[in-house]
Write a structure and sequence with these properties.
Elements: H1 2-10, H2 15-21, E1 33-37, H3 44-60, E2 63-67, H4 74-86, E3 91-94, H5 99-111, E4 116-119, E5 131-133, H6 136-150, E6 155-161, H7 166-180, E7 185-192, H8 197-209, E8 216-219, H9 224-234, E9 242-246, H10 250-258, E10 263-266, H11 269-285, E11 306-308, E12 312-315, H12 319-329
Parallel strand pairs: 1-2, 1-3, 3-4, 4-5, 5-11, 6-7, 6-8, 8-9, 9-10
Antiparallel strand pairs: 10-12
Helix pairs in contact: 2-11, 3-11, 4-5, 6-7, 8-9
């Protein structure tokens, strides 16, 4: 029986397969501690990620905490990362709200031998090992195709984003590439909503107050579109505007049911944190020497560059099913 188990494990040569197999037989030290660092951690998106982190933490019987500011505050997130790294943890997952500001902190942690993986929002110019999350460019093209279809390839679009965040830049790039193929679709305004719902609400209200010619709203993150939907409801414009959001905040899903939001691109934050911790644990127990290397350019690297956790389009045709699935899993 032992011999069978040994050869079963040896047959799983890929690092990701090893992480999933449960055959690694690792014993975890009592003080083995991991961190997930993010910003605006009280929003439902990050609470879903925390559920994934906690589930895998319990299975591995290690310590794992999510830390970061309760509001959108990239500077405070950098400080949270610095504080976590000072504890010399077994590893850190981080969603870089400001990739440029976070990169030196990631590099400092890696130089100390602390493995760092990015999730949700990458810091590609840092020395992080690899990224676990959504193919954000693809999410943007999927959203762009939905907008183009709903507009019949013609109309003016207002976009809500946070320009410094790398994942949102990639999503906007995807939207723009789709719209470039439809010259009658124009992005007439890009709103920096600064991670604050009231900014999104005021900007959407201004569109109606000034009677601007706008046919569609696009939200590249989770917070803006519920506010846009609120304004549309107040203006009695339900079903008359195309609105494509991001993520599966409860208010977003309810707005889809009411016809205030046309569709949203649903990510997998639970999976990012759950699988991210699994992979980080595998790195910790099989740490390469040196840890800092040009893994992306190494044709024989132990690590991928990108682990795609997937995304899906949710609209009125499948929103009820999505809600039932979410409730059945307790997420």
């Amino acid at each position: 029986m032992r011999l069978y188990s040994k050869y079963t494990c040896l047959s799983l040569t890929a690092a990701l397969a090893l992480a999933l197999s449960g055959c690694s037989g690792e014993s975890h030290a009592p003080d083995e501690h991991y961190y997930l660092v993010a910003t605006n951690i009280k929003v439902s998106y990050w609470q879903t990620a925390l559920a994934g982190l906690n589930q895998e933490r319990a299975q591995m019987r290690v310590k794992a905490d999510m830390v970061g500011p309760d509001t959108y505050d990239p500077k405070a997130e950098v400080q949270s990362f610095r504080t976590a790294a000072a504890q010399n943890p077994a590893g850190i997952l981080v969603s870089a709200s400001d990739a440029k500001a976070m990169a030196p902190e990631i590099n400092a942690a890696m130089s100390k031998g602390i493995p760092v993986l990015t999730i949700d929002s990458d810091a590609p110019d840092s020395q992080r090992l690899f990224f676990v999350g959504t193919d954000n460019y693809k999410a943007g093209t999927e959203g762009g195709e939905e907008v183009a279809k709903l507009l019949n390839n013609k109309g003016n679009v207002v976009v809500f984003t946070m320009p410094d965040q790398a994942n949102l830049q990639e999503r906007l790039h995807g939207y723009k590439d789709i719209f470039d193929a439809h010259p009658d679709i124009k992005i007439t305004k890009v709103v920096d909503m600064q991670g604050r719902p009231e900014v999104a609400f005021d900007a959407a209200k201004e569109v109606f107050d000034k009677k601007e010619k706008v046919d569609a709203f696009v939200c590249l993150e989770a917070i803006a579109c519920p506010e846009v939907a609120d304004v549309i409801q107040r203006e009695n414009m339900a079903g008359k505007m195309v609105v494509v959001g991001m993520d599966t905040d409860q208010r977003t899903l309810e707005a889809i049911q009411k016809g205030l939001i046309s569709a949203t691109i649903g990510q997998k934050p639970f999976t990012m944190a759950y699988y991210g911790l699994k992979l980080l644990d595998d790195v910790h127990h099989h740490k390469p020497t040196p840890l800092v290397a040009n893994w992306a350019q190494d044709s024989f690297s132990r690590f991928p560059t990108f682990v795609d956790t997937g995304a899906s389009l949710i609209d009125k045709s499948n929103v009820d099913t999505f809600i039932k699935q979410s409730q059945s899993t307790g997420k």
